[in-house]
Structure formats: structure tokens, C-alpha cells
């Protein structure tokens, strides 16, 4: 995720008595090593050695949820391909990609990764579904079109629409002009718009026993957190117990697996509890983008088993951190406490 390295870099800058802006602006590597983007928008020369410390440690990448039927990626920074190569995850296994927001360190790896997947994929591989804020479709189209990239697989981009500008510190919930690139890429299947429901939550997608929800996070641009919710998995059926009761393998096995009671040849009733193991409790994974306020996701994040949350700056820089739409470790602990308290209360 690269957030801890940001933290270390800030400490280094503090030693030099400078108040940094953690926002990295695009530029050539030379510029990025020798210059720094200051809060007032002016660029000033910075100690290249200090900047190199920041630059060398930084590795904007991604989070991947590995599943038997395909892997799901969350965000795709420019370091994602390098990290994937170091891991046991093959790019061709990706079936869904979720982007939290359109800042480059969460997105710039997507066009390149798409091309890599295209180089290695089978002809009949399933399409890739990509989810994210409005503007994501245009970004990918422009990148692929200008680089004349054909992918060899089909993809669709499903965009999350938000009508509340109060989550977005800049006040813009999406790019102003979406019309300049309305031509579909040859490998693109048109995605669907996803709107919030009455509880201000987005039901993003559902596959087998997993449902993905999203909620808005306060940041400089429209940003979402994703919650992957697993349904409870029933316990395993013990066929030896059913055989003992005189039930041969067949349709009655399916019936009891579906939670229904059945009647044995001796007339007695067999309930699922008697012949099935304990159900596996549902699990929940919460993966958030950059934010200075993640409170809107609390309701659906409650009882989470795993939470991925940034902590960009130290607590003593809290004021600046919130200005830039980021969190400190203290903000993160506040959220985690509320989730854990909820877990123990329930
Ligand atoms: Zn950001």
C-alpha cells in the first residue's frame, strides 16, 4: 500500500524543518527526485537525497483477494505489476478490479496491467469487470486508445455515481467533462452505472457467496471503501451418518443440504443439525481508499475480520493530514475501536 513509507518520508522531511505536502504530482523521474510539491502550489527545490529516500521507499501497489474462482484486485498503483511478479498471483487470474478513487497512486498501474493480462491470457478467458468512481471508464479508454492497445480479452467498467459533494473536499464528485471520449474501446463491453440506495450504500456486485458493497469516504476527490461480505457457509454433510439411518445417496442428500428435514425409512425425522457439521461463520473484509473520515462505512464495516486502512502521516501532523484528505494512526484506531466495540456488543 505504500502508506508506511510515506510516513517515514515525512519524518525525514521533518528533520530538515520542512512541512511537506504528501501529494505527489506527476513529472519526469528527474523532476520527482529533485523537486517537491508544496502546499501553496509552488515548486521548490528539495534535497535530492531526502527525496530519493522517499522515492526509493515508495511502492504504490494494490491489494489482492485470492479466491479459487479468480482473484480480485483493489486499487492498482504503478507498482502493482512489480509486486504481482514477486507474488504467487498470476495477472491472468484477475477477474475483478475495484478502484477506490482516481488519484494516480491508486490507478496508474491499470492500463499497463491490462496489457500484461492481455499478453498472457487464454482466448476464452472470462471478461474482467472493473468498478470505480465516475471517470474511470474514460481514463481507461483514453489510455488504451492513445497507446493503441488491444487487450485480447473483454472488459467492462461499472461506475459508481455519488450525488453528495460533501464527501469530496474539492467539491467535485466526478470529472467535469465525460463526453470527450464516448467511443468504446474494441475490447470493451459497456458497463452499468451503480447508484446509491436509500441507506447511502452502493451494492457493487455479487458472485457466488460474496457480495461487495461500497460507501463514500471523505477525501480530496470522490473516494469509496469496499466491503466484501461472505454469506455463512453451511457445515459439511456426513454421509456415513445418513447411511446409518438408512438413507442412500440421492436427492434426499440435496434436500438436507438445503436445510430441510427428511424422513428416514423407519419414519423418524432427520434434521440437518443431526448429520451436518457446524456452519462456517460469515467473514467480512473491508478495504478503504485514502480518507480523512471513514465514518460513513462504519455500519457495513462492523464486525469486519480484516480492515485495510491508510495511515499516511503521524498523529502530530493530524491537522495537515486532514487538510490533504488522509488519516493518521489515531484516526485509524478510532475506527477500529468502534468496529471492535460493535463486535463485542453484538
Ligand atoms: Zn488519494
TrEMBL record:
<dbReference type="InterPro" id="IPR013471">
    <property type="entry name" value="RNase_Z/BN"/>
</dbReference>
<protein>
    <submittedName>
        <fullName>Zinc phosphodiesterase ELAC protein 1</fullName>
    </submittedName>
</protein>
<keyword id="KW-0378">Hydrolase</keyword>
<dbReference type="GO" id="GO:0042781">
    <property type="term" value="F:3'-tRNA processing endoribonuclease activity"/>
</dbReference>
<keyword id="KW-0479">Metal-binding</keyword>
<dbReference type="Pfam" id="PF00753">
    <property type="entry name" value="Lactamase_B"/>
</dbReference>
<keyword id="KW-0540">Nuclease</keyword>
<comment type="subunit">
    <text>Homodimer.</text>
</comment>
<dbReference type="GO" id="GO:0005634">
    <property type="term" value="C:nucleus"/>
</dbReference>
<keyword id="KW-0255">Endonuclease</keyword>
<dbReference type="InterPro" id="IPR001279">
    <property type="entry name" value="Metallo-B-lactamas"/>
</dbReference>
<dbReference type="GO" id="GO:0046872">
    <property type="term" value="F:metal ion binding"/>
</dbReference>
<keyword id="KW-0819">tRNA processing</keyword>
<feature type="domain" description="Metallo-beta-lactamase">
    <location>
        <begin position="57"/>
        <end position="113"/>
    </location>
</feature>
<keyword id="KW-0862">Zinc</keyword>
<dbReference type="InterPro" id="IPR036866">
    <property type="entry name" value="RibonucZ/Hydroxyglut_hydro"/>
</dbReference>
Amino acid at each position: 500500500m505504500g502508506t508506511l513509507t510515506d510516513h517515514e518520508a515525512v519524518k525525514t522531511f521533518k528533520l530538515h524543518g520542512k512541512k511537506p505536502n504528501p501529494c505527489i504530482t506527476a513529472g519526469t523521474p528527474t523532476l520527482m527526485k529533485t523537486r517537491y510539491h508544496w502546499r501553496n502550489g509552488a515548486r521548490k527545490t528539495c534535497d535530492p537525497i531526502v527525496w530519493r529516500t522517499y522515492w526509493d521507499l515508495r511502492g504504490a501497489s494494490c491489494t489482492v483477494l485470492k479466491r479459487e474462482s479468480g482473484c480480485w484486485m483493489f486499487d492498482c498503483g504503478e507498482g502493482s505489476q512489480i509486486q504481482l511478479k514477486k507474488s504467487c498471483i498470476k495477472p491472468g487470474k484477475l477477474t475483478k478490479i475495484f478502484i477506490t478513487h482516481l488519484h494516480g497512486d491508486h490507478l496508474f498501474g491499470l492500463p499497463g496491467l491490462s496489457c500484461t493480462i492481455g499478453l498472457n491470457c487464454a482466448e476464452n478467458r472470462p471478461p474482467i469487470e472493473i468498478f470505480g468512481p465516475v471517470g474511470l471508464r474514460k481514463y481507461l479508454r483514453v489510455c488504451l486508445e492513445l497507446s493503441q492497445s488491444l487487450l485480447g480479452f473483454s472488459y467492462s467498467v461499472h461506475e459508481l455515481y455519488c450525488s453528495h459533494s460533501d464527501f469530496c473536499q474539492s467539491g467535485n464528485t466526478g470529472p467535469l467533462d465525460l463526453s470527450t471520449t464516448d467511443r468504446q474501446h474494441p475490447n470493451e463491453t459497456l458497463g452499468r452505472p451503480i447508484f446509491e440506495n436509500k441507506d447511502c450504500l452502493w451494492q457493487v456486485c455479487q458472485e457466488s457467496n460474496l457480495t461487495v458493497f461500497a460507501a463514500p469516504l471523505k477525501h480530496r476527490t470522490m473516494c469509496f471503501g469496499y466491503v466484501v461480505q461472505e454469506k455463512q457457509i453451511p457445515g459439511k454433510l456426513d454421509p456415513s451418518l445418513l447411511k446409518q439411518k438408512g438413507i442412500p445417496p440421492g436427492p434426499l442428500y440435496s434436500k438436507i443440504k438445503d436445510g430441510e428435514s427428511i424422513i428416514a425409512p423407519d419414519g423418524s425425522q432427520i434434521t440437518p443439525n443431526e448429520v451436518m457439521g457446524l456452519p462456517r461463520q460469515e467473514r467480512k473484509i473491508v478495504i478503504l481508499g485514502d480518507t480523512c473520515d471513514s465514518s460513513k462505512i462504519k455500519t457495513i464495516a462492523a464486525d469486519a475480520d480484516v480492515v485495510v486502512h491508510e495511515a499516511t502521516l503521524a498523529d502530530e501532523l493530524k491537522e495537515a493530514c486532514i487538510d490533504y484528505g488522509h488519516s493518521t494512526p489515531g484516526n485509524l484506531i478510532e475506527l477500529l475501536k468502534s468496529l471492535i466495540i460493535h463486535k463485542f456488543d453484538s
